[in-house]
Structures are given as structure tokens and as C-alpha cells.
Amino acid sequence: MSEEAEYLQFFRLKEEPFTASPNPRFFYTSPLHHLALQKTRYVTSAKKGLCVVLGDTGTGKTTLARLLYQQFVDSQFTTAFITDPAYPTPYQLLRTIMQEFGYPQFGRSYKASLDRFKQFVLQQTIQENKTLVLIVDEVQEMKPALLEFLRRLLNFETNEQKLLQLVLFSQNELREKLRKAKNFNNRIALKASLETLSLVDSKDMLEFRWTVAGGKKLPFTDTGLEALYEYSAGVPRTQVILADNCLLTAFLKKHKKIDRSLVAEVAQDQEIELVSQ
């Protein structure tokens, strides 16, 4: 039996519960995440144009973006998802957007390609009555020229609605860029902010992921859960990574329960300092 199989059998799991990869299946929708999701879905379905979701590193932006993308696909929207938008020029970003929409009919120049993309948008939205959604993650990495390009895409509109719906996910540093780009900032129909989790939500998140992985009772004691929260300061990604390392240490030591002392030991090994008491 492999070590991974022994690990899963030890905790009676079907799969690992605390991987850091942005898998929507393991995404715990806290009340704040649920509200952001509902608002974004409404504004997009109402074709109001531009939504921006902001949050610090590790608060679940990328996973929320993937979950939203999957929901739009399941709703039969025509959706494109850009995960790395830091392109050197608007033309390169445009070509990627066209490819993601399954329409790589580029022109001989930037303008010609933009004209073709506009015709595609008009055909999809006006003639075929579809909702086109462009989701972009890590927007804080985009240069001002790229933000201006996205603003130009919002000019695809009728008197009643925006023809292309944009949903942008970014770290909080984008706020300063938006303050400087007033023409862009004024186009935002919705801003949603993702914050750290409360202690109750942190416990619920861990239990949710444990259940999805096939587990029964979470091995963390009450003091262990409190320690996880304190060391992570409620940041979901930090908490998941710390919980994952705690499980591994408990498995190697053959401990069925994970208490505060074990969490503290693992946190020290990971060089995670205690943030709150």
C-alpha cells in the first residue's frame, strides 16, 4: 500500500481535504462569499456591464472566479475566463479573449481584430440573444493601457444594456489604480469585497471540506480549531495549508486527534507567526 493510501485510510478519507488548489468542489461559500456571488450573478444576468470583486491574498478570489465561471457555463451563458491577464499590449489580450470565446477570427491589425470581435459580440447578443461574460482574474497585474482596453469593451452596448459583461477579480491593490482611472471606475456597476473568515465560518469551512473528502468527524479538537484560526488570522488559504500540514504530521506521529500543541508545532515549522490571541 502506498503512503498516500495509508494516509487516507488512517483518517478514513476518499481524497485529501486540504489541498490549496482552487477546486470549486472544495470551496466553502461563507455568507460573505455567497453574497458576493449572488450580487455578481444578478448584475451580470441583468446585463449591467462591469463587476469588480476585491480581496486580499488567500481570501478565495480565484476559487470564487472558477465557481462563477462554472455556474455561468451551466446556465448556458457564453463565457470566457482569463487567468493571467498581464499581457504586454491590448492587442495580445484581445487575441486571447477571442480565443477563449472560441472565435479566433483575427484581422490583419488590432483595429481589424477589434472590429471582428465586435461583430461576434453583436451576433451573439442581438441575433442569438445570448449573454456574453468575460471573467478576468488577477486584474491587479494589468497595466493601465489594458484597463483602458477593458473600458473600451464596455462601449459595446445598446440603449438598454451592455453587450459584454465583465467580471474582474483582483487583490486590493487595484483600488488605487481604480481611483486614478476615473473613467473606468465610474463604469463599475458593482464592487464586492472578500474579507477574512470569522471563527465560526473557519470551523464550518474545515468541516465542509472534510465532508467533501469523505470524512466523518473532523480530527481537530476545539482548541486545535481555535489555534488554526489564530495562526491563520482567518485567511482561508493559510488555514487550509496549515490544516494540511497538521494532518500530515498527525499521520506520521499516528495521532488521531490534532490539538493546540500540534497546531503550534506545525505553525512553527511553517514559520507562521501567531497573529491573534
SSE topology sketch:
Blueprint lengths: L2 H9 L19 H15 L4 E6 L5 H14 L3 E5 L7 H11 L9 H18 L4 E5 L7 H10 L10 E7 L3 H7 L1 H4 L4 E5 L4 H14 L9 H11 L3 H18 L6 H10 L8
Parallel strand pairs: 1-4, 1-5, 2-3, 3-4
Helix pairs in contact: 4-5, 10-11, 10-12, 11-12
The name CATH uses for the topology of the largest domain is: Rossmann fold
Strand content: 5-15%
Cα-atom radius of gyration? 22 Å
Task: Specify the biggest β-sheet.
Answer: 5 strands, parallel
Query: Structural class given helices, strands, pairing?
Result: alpha/beta
Q: Unreliable runs, pLDDT <50, ≥5 residues? A: none
Mean pLDDT: 92
The CATH superfamily of the largest domain is known as P-loop containing nucleotide triphosphate hydrolases
Count of distinct structural domains: 2
Helix content: 40-55%
Order of helices and strands: HHEHEHHEHEHHEHHHH
Shape: elongated
CATH class of the largest domain, please? Alpha Beta
Short synopsis of the structure:
The protein is an alpha/beta fold and 277 residues long. The chain has helices at residues 3-11, 31-45, 61-74, 90-100, 110-127, 144-153, 174-180, 182-185, 199-212, 222-232, 236-253, 260-269, and strands at residues 50-55, 78-82, 132-136, 164-170, 190-194. Helix 6 (144-153) links the parallel strand 3 and strand 4 (164-170).
